[in-house]
Design a protein that fits this description.
The structure is a homodimer.
Chain A: H1 2-12, H2 47-57, E1 78-80, E2 86-89, H3 92-95, H4 104-111, H5 116-120, H6 133-138, E3 151-155, H7 158-178, H8 184-190, E4 202-206, H9 215-218, H10 225-228, E5 238-239, H11 252-275, E6 280-285, H12 299-311, E7 315-319, E8 345-348, E9 355-359, H13 379-394, H14 397-418, E10 423-429, E11 432-437, H15 440-452, E12 455-456, E13 458-460, E14 464-467, H16 475-491
Parallel strand pairs in A: 2-12, 4-5, 4-6, 6-7, 7-8
Antiparallel strand pairs in A: 1-2, 3-9, 8-9, 10-11, 11-14, 13-14
Chain lengths: 493, 493
């Protein structure tokens, strides 16, 4: 209890990134603050990471491993690797660490004896939920429910969230088609994967979109071929996503024209698939296409997409797995759109720590066990989210992210002027930024050079660098990164 | 440290189900032993559970909720609900609590400061794994790797595990077909969900099988129509699963005939789908069809199925999500089959706490990012599994489960003789048992009566009761259950 009081006290002191000794009783990092700058001891991966990678490679494919992390030595925006290299992290475990490493508010959750039984007894949430789940969800997820959506279902990860969102959309669409629940014939034929019980319905997705890698999601993912090749897919409609020119406010007329072209294709696809007897039950879209290359579209595009969905009786599924939880400077990226009617479904995961989806009352399943699995999420992740959301509120992290984003984007814009042969299309909302690099090889080289100077980053699309820092990333951190990036660019041949 | 020594000491004392005071410093249950018997205060759900259910119902469909659990008051085989009812648990959160509630070995994991950073910093395992992951996997998953399988990939849940197992099988099959990696044409066409990049391959599954509820898995699930109806499905082959007569050793000739009939159908389906240009890349099967009604088949059936898979170049995927981790009295249920060549893939989740799959070296993907997602499992679950496996070894829980299973199955067999108008087909391996009830309504009534006398159970298939206790369920617990079940059956009209 004493510890909790201390931790709360620390949280109230602005910028006090400090650990109580009790948090790491056996750790030499006790009482340390966040590190001041990157500090590199080896190239990355260093010898210890390389040795571990060889060991891991004996039991699974591990070529994608960048390095091994020493999480207990990591702090805030700084990730420390197995070789003691300390790097500023603008990737944050693929955009999934909301408050940086070892945040005291999360440590407090782990140290509270009241939470012990949640961590050691994972419930089957759909049939035997814990006493405190309603309160937990009410004080976490419901506080950030997108306007107009009052229903929420937790899930374990982003792909599960999208798969189940699709299912909820299919149930809703078929009930609407039939004017009621499934018939005996529907039930019987579904057991054999045959019509009408296994209906020929589709989800419309966009070129460049990413929605996960399970078979349903993967049919809607079109970011990189290596994610998709050799996996059977549903023949579902795919529409072009706008290729806009940046900065968006300099090319409004041209971009509006491109967006209209894409929306016409959306409508054509909906009509074509309807004629083919495979109606579009839902449209799935990311507010910013993240894996596909940080492709933006205007609020007007999304408002018109919402209109098309309504016109054709399709549900609009807004996939906020990567954009959600504040990185754009608003809690949900779709808040920038000023929609008259909200998306029908909003899916989330990553920084939210728990997966899941919000949905309109109309999309609530009409029977038990239709949206169901053993665990249906994990209350330990909701506990952690509860703390994350409190810190976001108390520390005004959305505002901080907006401020840091201004510095980051302005810096990227200046660097692209300075290195116009290398960089273009600096773009972003909040700290959810990206910049396009001349070619793929140069992009890879820049990422490697940044890593070896103590910046963890990754690419997206064919040749963009994306920025996905935590919500505790400040103007100061942006400046540290920009200074290093400048030096990397200066050395780039 | 003192605590760890105490806990280890306790673990070494047989049947010492005791909590150190430090484990629950603020809990009135400190120092308590496992409860002795069920103790009921209300009917279930009681007034507190009912009130919570009304609240939950405002934010999601909650008709399937049985009652709300007070996990901190639960102990070992006893689950306590919101109204203070204490029930012996033979369902264990749909077969996913390996060591009962609040096991000291799991509490110890949470209390060890060395583990703190694992719980508060979830890594993107595929690119930035933690320092200790190789050791953790080596000392947990690899120790229980099925014979012949040396590769393992963690995943978040059972459905993800099966989806990714299917993908690994598709990659392997296509590389085999082509004699090498994907062509440019494969890559290009896959982005549009078109052949040849999105190939027309299939997974053969069985009537009555259950493999999860995401779209790929659901195409292989055929246990209950309500799980499937209204969701688009792949047109993949479905073979009959043997309908055997029990006890198996009394009907060997008849059952062998039925198994041959099913295996002929398997081969016919493989050939038919090959002719239709949709070859069978893999066959997915549960060692005991669990959700579908605890349907057993003989080791000979599985050996011949293995042979058919090999003959036709299909991978055999053994779904041990529900059967794995000891409930059958062996760690993996397929160990009972004495296969010459192991299954190509074995998937797991539930009691294993982490999802994932073991696979043969040949099924290792040929490139990075083919089996990939943000989290690829959760090291906190591997940490907990590490402790679970240690307790299974140290406490000889497989042997204990075999002993308890003998008492349970013998008791069920006696009750079905005594109440032959109500029960039949008592069957099982280890404590993974079931009994068939006269009709669905009677089955539901028996389950309700058991619940109100302090036994948590659930049905499977159309009218079976399944038993899924934890691995700490002993002969004594079996006798407590049998006594109550006898009284319920005696009162059944």
């Amino acid at each position: 209890m004493a510890l909790r009081i201390i931790s709360r006290h620390l949280l109230q002191k602005p910028a006090a990134w400090r650990y109580s000794t009790a948090a790491f009783p056996s750790s030499p990092q006790a009482k340390c603050q966040e590190y001041e700058r990157p500090l590199m001891k080896t190239t990355v991966p260093g010898p210890k990471s390389q040795a571990l990678k060889r060991e891991l490679s004996a039991i699974q494919h591990s070529d994608a491993v960048k390095f091994f992390c020493d999480f207990s030595a990591s702090r805030g925006n700084y990730l420390v690797d197995a070789d003691g290299n300390r790097m500023i992290d603008l990737l944050t475990q693929i955009s999934s660490i909301p408050l940086g490493y070892n945040h005291p508010a999360l440590i407090e959750i782990l140290q509270d004896p009241e939470n012990m039984s949640t961590f050691v007894n994972r419930p089957a949430l759909g049939i035997l939920p814990p006493l405190d789940i309603v309160r937990l969800i009410s004080e976490s997820l419901l506080l950030v429910a997108p306007r107009g959506l009052r229903q929420v279902q937790t899930m374990a990860c982003g792909a599960c969230s999208n798969e189940n969102a699709f299912k909820a959309v299919f149930f809703w669409y078929r009930n609407k088609q039939r004017g009621g629940s499934a018939s005996h014939e529907d039930l019987e034929s579904s057991m054999l994967n045959q019509m009408p019980g296994s209906p020929d319905l589709s989800i419309l997705s966009f070129n460049g979109g990413f929605h996960g890698r399970t078979l349903g999601c993967l049919s809607c993912t079109h970011s990189k071929a290596i994610h998709k090749v050799d996996v059977p897919a549903f023949d579902w409609p795919i529409a072009p996503f706008p290729h806009l020119r940046y900065p968006l406010d300099e090319f409004t007329a041209e971009n509006a024209h491109e967006e209209s072209r894409c929306l016409e294709q959306v409508e054509e696809q909906i009509e074509a698939y309807s004629r083919r007897g495979r109606p579009v039950a839902g449209i799935v879209v990311e507010p910013i296409q993240a894996e596909g290359g940080d492709n933006h579209a205007s609020p007007d595009f999304f408002r018109r997409l919402r209109g098309l969905a309504t016109k054709h009786g399709c549900a609009l599924i807004c996939d906020e797995v990567q954009t959600g939880c504040g990185a754009t400077g608003r809690f949900w990226a779709h808040e920038y759109w000023n929609l008259d009617s909200p998306p029908d479904v909003v899916t989330f995961s990553k920084k939210m720590l728990t997966g899941g989806f919000f949905f309109k009352d109309e999309l609530r399943p009409d029977a038990s066990y239709r949206i169901f699995n053993t665990w249906m999420g994990d209350p330990t992740k909701v506990l952690l989210l509860h703390a994350v959301l409190r810190v976001i509120r108390e520390k005004h992290l959305l505002e901080g992210t907006q401020r840091a984003g201004v510095v980051l984007l302005r810096g990227l814009t200046q660097l692209q002027e300075q290195y116009s042969n290398l960089l273009s299309e600096a773009r972003g909302q909040g700290t959810f930024c990206a910049v396009t690099v001349r070619d793929q090889k140069t992009c890879d080289n820049l990422l490697t050079s940044c890593l070896n100077k103590g910046v963890v980053l990754s690419g997206c699309g064919e040749r963009s660098i994306r920025f996905r820092p935590a919500l505790i990333f400040t103007e100061q951190h942006a400046n540290i990164f920009l200074e290093i990036f400048d030096s990397v660019l200066a050395e780039c041949k």
